[in-house]
Amino acid sequence: MNYRTRMRNLREDRDLTQREVAAVINKSQQGYSHIEDGRAELKIDDLIKLCKFYGVTADYFIGLGEK
């Protein structure tokens, strides 16, 4: 599973909108959408924020390990 799929799954499993998660990484909904669908890359700083927000490890988030 790639990180974009994991990113979407984590958001949907918590019934969050793209706008809500975008606020966590200080992006617009459109900017967040571009990351989720592959038109933009996730920055390391934003990865760290999302891992803290979701309570998961970076390895899990990018598909290298379990929570």
Strand-helix topology:
Blueprint: H1 3-13, H2 18-24, H3 29-37, H4 44-54, H5 58-61
Helix pairs in contact: 2-3
Structure commentary:
The chain is mostly helical and 67 residues long. It has a single domain (3-61), classed as 434 Repressor (Amino-terminal Domain) (Orthogonal Bundle). It has helices spanning 3-13, 18-24, 29-37, 44-54, 58-61. Helix 2 (18-24) crosses helix 3. The model has no long low-confidence stretch (mean pLDDT 95).
Mean pLDDT: 95
Strand content: under 5%
- The beta-strand count equals 0
Oligomer type: single chain
Overall structural domain count: 1
Question: Can you identify the CATH superfamily?
Answer: lambda repressor-like DNA-binding domains
List the total number of helices.
5
- Which fold name is given in CATH as the topology? 434 Repressor (Amino-terminal Domain)
Report how far apart the termini are. Answer: 14 Å
Question: What is the CATH class designation?
Answer: Mainly Alpha
Largest sheet: none
Give the helix proportion (percent range). 55-70%
Order of helices and strands: HHHHH
- CATH-defined architecture: Orthogonal Bundle
Structural class: mainly alpha
Globally, the shape reads: globular
Radius of gyration (Å): 11 Å
Segments where pLDDT lies below 50 for 5+ residues? none
